[in-house]
Amino acid sequence: MAETGALSVKIVTKRGLSWQGAAQYVQVPVEDGSLGILPHRQPLLARLKEGPVILTIGDDTKTFPVAGGFVSVDSDVVTVVAEGMES
């Protein structure tokens, strides 16, 4: 479970789990731009386009380039299902 004020994030592909942990902010590439996700966001399901998934973890930032897929957000749990990860 994520710490208070954080999001519980999973990034998965057909090869399995790529990353799992807590983040304060998630940005994903969606069909019409990008979507920022903060704790307590309303539930959503959105289609991803090719581009970076950016996680803010404390003072650090992690970037995962994805090749499409979808993102699900519900109760501070963010699940990114990527069609593939770019190099």
TrEMBL record:
Keywords: ATP synthesis, CF(1). It holds the Pfam family ATP-synt_DE_N. Its main location: membrane. It comes from the Bacteria. Residues 7-83 form the ATP synthase F1 complex delta/epsilon subunit N-terminal domain. It is found in: Cell membrane. It is a peripheral membrane protein. InterPro entries: ATP_synth_F1_dsu/esu_N, ATPsynth_dsu/esu_N. SUPFAM superfamilies: Epsilon subunit of F1F0-ATP synthase N-terminal domain. This is F-type H+-transporting ATPase subunit epsilon. It comes from Schaalia radingae.
